[in-house]
Structures
1.
Amino acid sequence: MENIIKIIKISKPLHKLVYILSILILLGSAVSLAAPILSKFIVDNIVNELQHKTGNIHTLILLVILAFAMNIISLILESISERLGDHFAGELRKFLTEKFYDKTLSLPQSYFDTQVSGKIINQLARGITSIQGFLNTGTNFILPTIIQSIFTIAVLAYYNLPIAVSAFLLFPIYMGLSYYSTLKWGREEIKKNKIEDTTRGRIQEVIANMNLVKSFNRQFSEYKSASESLSRINEIYAVQSKTFHIFDFFRGLSLNIILFIINIIVFYDAFHGSLSIGTMVLILQLVAQVRIPLFAMSFILTQVQTAESGSKEYFEILELPSTETYKNQEIIDKIKNPSIRFENVSFNYENSGEILKDVSFDIKNKEKVALVGHSGAGKTTIVNLILKFYTPSSGVIYLGNETYKSVSHRFIRENIALVFQDSELFSSTIKENVAYGKPKACEKEIITALKAANAYDFVMGFSKGIENEVGERGVKLSGGQKQRIQIARAILKDAPILILDEATSSLDAKSEKEVYDALNMLMKNRLVIIIAHRFSTIQNVDRVLVIDEGKIVDSGKPKELAKKSGIYSDLLKYQIEGNKKLLESFEIY
């Protein structure tokens, strides 16, 4: 019940609705018993008239009208409470989704580096569905059932204590059997959830990378893998189903035995005159009402167990430590003369060795610096630290004269614009993608940015212009077009610091030239950090930092480093020799 208690606690903002619902349910449960009680007096009145001519027609009419009125009131209360219950479910779904989304937006980047997005979404969906299902069932069904059962047993006890005790015994028997049944169900549910998370995460990855899957003819193996996982889920479900039905048989058996005992008592007492016919009818109606919550008991406990196991990962994510705050949306002034300084910075990922080791450098205002080195040397890690995606294991990073610890994530990123290697775009319009860093930008500003990025002409060639949708991750655009949309986005943001992460690495020569011309416009009067493997893109930088195995092993101007032995000159030679061989093969060198 640990997670159930957490569910109740986190839904505190909605407790007022729960209190109102509880009052309505309490009233509805009380009123629902009025009709069976009134039916006792109606039957007794008719029997008295038939046997002793002592009945009263006016009393009979009044009782019938009153029973009808109670049924109408009960119906009104039930309708209101169910509508309020549905409202509560909607508000709860919104509240839980917002809480989860808020948490994910404030988690460190390292969390997303180790998780599959499809798995996270599946955990969110299952957590919310199970919690909402439990609380919605609780307000519309569980709570009314419990209250009605208490009232029913109390009325039975007033008229016949042995019958009330017999009826009451059904509850612990049913609850005990249902508890063990749902406990076993819950254990299997956790196993099932793990397989389901992995399977759904993989399916989402396959859909996102369909061109890769098809190009390697892996459709059948991916289908087979998903099918095998789904079969394992069905095997677990078969175990759950078998357990449920075995226990359900014993629940039904206990119900039939005790109802048999109750019927013997009721009919025996009525036969000997110790119970009136009206009382007998009342008791039989109340016993029939008792059966309703009993039949629902296994469902109720299954809902409890489903919420308990289904919300497990939901709460695990909620309990992760947040590292960022983002809700303070006050206007942040751009830094006028930015500089970045690393002092003895080291960094290591969790469960890994040091990625950066005692790194120190200083990048001044309007300086253009390239980070060069073999793959895995630590270039991207330096950029992630500059963006405050990660926190250094040791050492200090400065933005101007302020340490990174003293300024917010939002302040740092508001002063940085990025152009990614992977053309990160949303599946919305060109207009929305360009304005992502400046949502309030007008259409004129967006068009100006597109022109500066050499993107205006091809954008205007689309049927809807800037309102044209780019598809998931910009699938409807070419590589060069996607990069120029990214550049337009960075131009519009107009941040004083610019980071280019392999911005032209995946482009053909013509697209690279078009993008490079746009980048030259973007880099003017900014502090620029470039990660590049193509040396043609960094020939005009002010300085190159050469990184190897997490350390800065050399630095200087591109021409200086090209003339001295080291990693930079080696990498440059590899590229030159590769180009020479290509030209020689075409006999044009």
Note: The chain is about 65% helix and 10% strand.
2.
Amino acid sequence: MSAVERQLEDIKETIASEVPNDVSVSDVTYEGPELVVYTRDPKKFAGDGDLIRRLASQLRKRITVRPDPDVLSRPGEARDRIREIIPEEAGVTDLDFHADTGEVVIEAEKPGVVIGRHGSTLREITQAVGWTPEVVRTPPIESSTVSNVRNFLKQERDERRDILERVGRQIHREEMSDDEWVRITTLGCCREVGRASFILNTPETRVLIDCGDKPGAEGEVPYLQVPEALGGGPQNIDAVVLTHAHLDHSALIPLLFKYGYDGPIYCTEPTRDLMGLLTLDYLDVAAKEGRAPPYESEQVREAIKHCIPLEYGDVTDVAPDLKLTFHNAGHILGSAVSHFHVGDGLYNVAFSGDIHYDDTRLFNGAVNDFPRVETLVMESTYGGRNDYQTDQEDSERKLKEVINRTVDRDGKVLIPAFAVGRSQELMLVLEEAMRSGDIPEVPVHLDGMIWEATAIHTTYPEYLRDDLRDRIFHDDENPFLADQFNHIDGGEDERQEVADGGPCIVLSTSGMVEGGPIMSWLTHLGADPDSTLTFVGYQAQGTLGRRIQNGWDEIPMDDRSNGRGTLTLNTDVETVDGFSGHADRQGLENFVRTMSPRPEKVLCVHGDESSVQDLSSALYHEFNMRTFAPKNLETFRFE
């Protein structure tokens, strides 16, 4: 009998001794980080609302209780009874029964109503029909991504269950080493923006944090071939943690599966869906531009299948000596500060990912309150000594001025925008400005993946700012459904119609003017002196967006738009700071200043060379802490 099997037998005995005599425990197994308990008495289990909580506290594990398949009521009968129990205002749209696990997936417009106070309705459902309810939200804006991901995972339930059981055994394996140390190896994004990737290494475990590309630098990928990473073989990596879905952090996650990786990816649920959307588009753009894609769509599906979604605040075992907790990073939907607790109180490391410290219209600001943190690995995108963005109110005022000035001369405002995050922030600003009369009501055209990304945002309102969530689901005032917003889905013909029409605003990907539909919009509007090209997001070095910001007006369109040569840019060019999803220099300093507890060491990463060095120096002088501006392929050891 293996160590894991002995452990499960001990746990089964402990559970059996704790539950009432008339409640059976037929099996206990691991599925990923969760302990799954099978019982022939699910109704009695559900009758004691504190039982699972007591067991989870005693065993220090996340517990899911499932009924044995042979004690379940028939789906037809269960369906009717469940609909009787759930209040009508929940808006149930689908019930999907899975006899192999005894789960019924309830899709509803208002999941909170299905769950009930402290889970009371869920317990009532189990008591009535025996099935274990799992609740998902019906997207208020139909999302093909969310639908496709859910249907795919439904089809792959058997294989996914095998994956989770294998991962569970790996997490709970017996520790083999008595050594105690922690190492962090930098595989990318050091003294540069993009290709974020790190290895967190203990004597027992290796975890890869992020695996992105570098905007404007084709072929520059993380140093995955080193022995600390995949150089020792794909089995070298125990787990992958994805902080958020932007391509400079997620683009090459599917490549790991091409190389033979077969382990878990820990991320939030919206990060999983957005990663699928953005990486498939990444392949599509590569094909359209005649570049060989680094992997196939099959590897994207494998990545999705291996995702284990975690919620903010849940402490989760990811290895025998490693616990992971996600906290809101305030950057984009589902973005997470990743906190690792190593060993039995040995060491604590937090990876910020990308953060926004202050609240925005879209998100609450980043969390920086932890039980313990010895070392912080922190982004420094705007870490330069002069990288102070205007505050939100001033930024919105300047944007409104640009729009009013352009519309007054019958021009069009063209905004290159990241599909995820900045576009939705701008939509909220534009919707309110038009509603209040600060700018005229003109069409706002959304091109590329922006509408689909917006639909995903409305699927996960619990990740949005509190008052926005309330507007969407309690007041029936979904600002994303305003009449002004138009999804461009007619391709070149519709773009030509817009270009020939009256004043309007166009939000289009890509945000750094590196391919995508923004190139088409430049051909339609770039020669128009009455229109304005307006940058609202970070433009990395080497990207066309940065070059235009720096004064380029001869735009190479070959290889970007069907070999049309060079375009002379005659539009006004404006930059409106303050809409970035990144904290500025002040925000980064405030994140560290108010961090509880304040870390002993900070590694400043994910910024141009001057930015990381400036921030590292400032934190050292201001807070008297050890700071570093590492290069790629450096290793730091902590004990």
Note: Residues 233 and 260 are 8 Å apart (CA to CA).
3.
Amino acid sequence: MIEPQQRIDRLCRLLALAVATAAFALRFKGVWFGYPPLAMHPDEGYLVYRALRIIQLGDLNPRFFNYPTLNLYLFAILFEGVALWNRLILGSPNVAGMPVMDFFIAARILVVFMSTATIYVTYEMGRRVIHPVAGLAAATLIAPAFLHVSNSFVATVDSSLALWSSLAVLMSVLIYADGARRHYYVLSGVFAGLALGSKYTGLLSVVPLIIAHLAVTKRNALLNKNFVLGLLAVPITFVLTTPYAVLDYESFRASVSFEQAHYSTGHAGAESSTGTSFLPYAKLLALDGYGVLPTLLFLGGVIWLSVKDYRMALILLGFPLSLFLFVGGYKVLFMRNLVAIVPFLALCGGILLYALLSWLKNWVSGRLSTLWGSVTAYGLVGILLCVSVSGQLVRSCRYIHLINLPDTRVASLLWITKNLPPGSRIGREHYTPPVEKLTDDYEVVYLGYYGLTRFPQSVAHLDYVVLSSTDYDRFISSPEDYPREAELYQTFFAENQLVKEFVPDSVTLGGPTIRIYRVAR
């Protein structure tokens, strides 16, 4: 006969799987943005094109270490499978003859699976820390979270970091709650190494392992075999997933130094007004990326758990707090850097909801029957949970709808090929249609990110210039922060002829505003 607790465990697990399935369906809708002609996300190409290069040339050295290479190699393995499928089933002759967007879609689907797996891992953490109901509430909180959703179907590294870091923390939780067993130490180190192999900030996922070890080990045995093996697993796993960090050390060191300098000096349009970004990150996370009410639940959960078991609270918060303090210490501000924090925000929120449920059940027990008391308690907490996630769910669904609309970059690309004279010299900034990939009729000069501000003299040799609001708006909307750049764009707008503008209406057309100018002579 199944015990009542076993029934609750089984029911919560089934409901958590249902939540993860619904989350997968929501995220899967997003993988098709830009399909079929263009890859729209600015960061996907860094991994996808290099993974394609690996399988085309057979050269495992990516010669690019701004990110570690775990995801790049996973994509390369996946692309080999896609290419094999196309050869055997569809008769495609080779990788070069396949539409490149097929590989983007495949990589995005893999990321969706990783993101969905993180939701279930979050449930497992809640179940192990407090109760299956806490885990179920946590999974429900993370499933529609906008910051997590919006990064869960793009071929980048942050969802991967969230998965491996969550698994590393789960193993650290088990060290504390289930006994200091060797395999928990090793697995925590392996998962931390995989997190580091996804993104360099993943190194911070070893912090919970250290805290859990200190919590369960006597002072005279701190440096025991389990702990040493767990720590050694981190660099070993990292080197296995990013081997050219050792084999091509100079390139690796140069890339890491570049990223450190980049984050220290700033990124136009994505930086705080001071030398640090703690407050902007916190504000954007609470108001936009995760939501006000879910954030309040997180804070309440942190307080409750800290009082109940401060060691467990330190284990759970060791990684997200370290990550927040690390990225917040830089001037550059990219919200995607906090994607790996979201599972722990949801986890603490789920813990508070379970605590509230327990209190309500006790409070109504003397006023109603046991059955109606439980129904009332579950109903009230369920309503609070639904209200908490509703805003984020609406925002995430709206975002997926918008990015799946026909894009201004596609519309402008088609217009250019039909209306601009062949042989024209076209300069284009980033976030504009890659004309050179569709046709050889034009001499295209790629100006890069906000190229007009860096190469203003290059315009004189062009016939047309294509600009994107994603570039120029960051300056024009903040002229007090970027006076030179704003003036350069405004002067260019005034002195050259706007021949066509594509403005998104969020109903029939999405994407940035694209402007096409004829250069004055």
Note: The two ends are 87 Å apart (CA to CA).
